[in-house]
């Protein structure tokens, strides 16, 4: 599942935290975060539908929804801060919402990784097999060239 935009959500929440001193930037950041979450929700639905076991799919779906709620609160606090840019209580709430979004992103990532264990095991095994094949090819190349020392008078062609 392509989740490259998933890493952008904590970046936007961090930028929102930094924009506490410059609230006019919050609208654009909130809009971008909303778009990125929309992409994540679509991809998350597909990942949850194909996840095995079914429990992992439920976990992905639940965590993506929780992240959505966190994003909603963050966007609401950003809007509130734009309305009243000097309110220190709203600034503090915005920072707390940004932290919560970052935590929820890590929970979504862990759910996606849990659903990916079988795939990762296959990738690791395929990589190991490719390494063995490459080593065998190298050995064959040296043996064909005659650079390997034979233990007796047999040639490589006899064993090939």
Automatic annotation (TrEMBL):
A Pfam family hit: VBS
Major localisation: cytoplasm
Subcellular location: Cytoplasm
Record GO terms (molecular function): actin filament binding; integrin binding
A GO cellular-component term linked to this record: plasma membrane
Domain Vinculin-binding site-containing: 16-117
Top-level taxon: Eukaryota
GO BP annotation list: actin cytoskeleton organization; cell-cell adhesion
Keyword line: Cytoplasm, Signal
Record keyword Chaperone present: no
InterPro entries: Alpha-catenin/vinculin-like_sf, Vinculin-bd_dom
Signal peptide extent: 1-19
Name of the protein in its database record: TLN2 protein
Species in which this protein is naturally found: Chloropsis hardwickii
Lineage: Eukaryota, Metazoa, Chordata, Craniata, Vertebrata
